[in-house]
Amino acid sequence: MHDRATLAFYGSDASKYVARYRGEQHRDLMGFLDRLPPAARVLELGCGGGGDAAAMLARGFDAVPTDGSPEMAQEAAVFLGRPVEVLMFEDLADEDVYDGVWASASLLHVPIADLMTILTRVHRALKPSGLFYASYKTGAGEGRDQFGRYYNYPSREVLVASYIAAGAWSSLEVEEQQGSGYDNQSTRWAAVIARTAFG
Length: 199
Hints:
Layout: H1 4-12, H2 14-21, H3 29-34, E1 41-45, H4 51-58, E2 62-67, H5 70-80, E3 85-86, E4 98-103, H6 115-125, E5 126-137, E6 143-144, E7 150-151, H7 156-166, E8 169-179, E9 187-196
Parallel strand pairs: 1-2, 1-4, 2-3, 4-5
Antiparallel strand pairs: 5-9, 6-7, 8-9
């Protein structure tokens, strides 16, 4: 369920990629954390260099940073001063463990045919009323960027359908944003915030 070329990019360019974003936090992170209870346990999927995890820890959250790239996980571990687990999305097997899951610009690399399956695993890992954030580069279907990285480039309709098929949510919000990325290209993004049904 992962693209080998994309994983290879993050392996070979880990230090360069991390250096570009060192110390930065995603613009949506604080709003996400504000919607969680104090000291909530938050799983991060695709932590990159660890900037978002550092912000979570600084605010007293029980952050669990992970990354699918061993090289990225090592970069984050050095920055955070704590171990970072190497975890592929398809290997997420926790059930009813996390108050929140944070997946900034990571699930956009999941093959579109497998996205619903991964979202189901995330849903299972969340507690009742757990909060889930993920961001995606939107478009009209699968493709690769100038670095050879795979993107699922989903439309709003595809995203909503994938989430609905993955489990029961008490709320599902999609916010469209204009931004960029490592390729410096102007990009349309979709930020999806979903909350699992109450227990």
